[in-house]
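Write out the 3D structure for:
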Amino acid sequence: MMAKLPPFPLATFGERLAYCPASGQLTWRVSPSSNARMGQIAGARIKIGYRKIVVNDLQFYAHHVAWYLHTGEWPVEMIDHINGDRDDNRACNLRLATQSQQNFNTKASVKNTSGRKGVARCQKTGRWRAYIMLGRKQKFLGNHATFDGAVAARERAEAEICGEFSRAPMQEATHHAQNLR
């Protein structure tokens, strides 16, 4: 999500919040309300996994505030969580990304039956199909006799196209694939 520039001086974040780059935690420097005390972890985790913080009656994503407090610049692009954990705001886990780059670093859909993003079994032939999304278009990477062949094709394409934004295969669930081979 691109960060909208707040309508108040950015220094306000530094006056009210402390950021620990090693832990990724934002804590209150001052007590903003009767519910939150100085030194307490700021914000609350929302349903989709991100942490939101309220400053001057406006909500901000914690990773945007963390980025600002760590770099001194308000993010103009999206912020990607490298390990996919939306509440892990350690400095080493945050990077600027375009929408396409961030899409490369996503988990396989819950509808995915192979357990590997970009690999599916063709119901008609029983062969494994490999593909990768480029923007909103699907690029076909070939039909393969084995699951491992399709995975290898997908991984080659990921390395070439996605680079550092490629989601590591070990981060994906592969338990379904064991049963489908």
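The beta strands are 17-19, 26-28, 44-45, 51-55, 58-61, 78-81, 94-97, 119-121, 128-134, 137-144.
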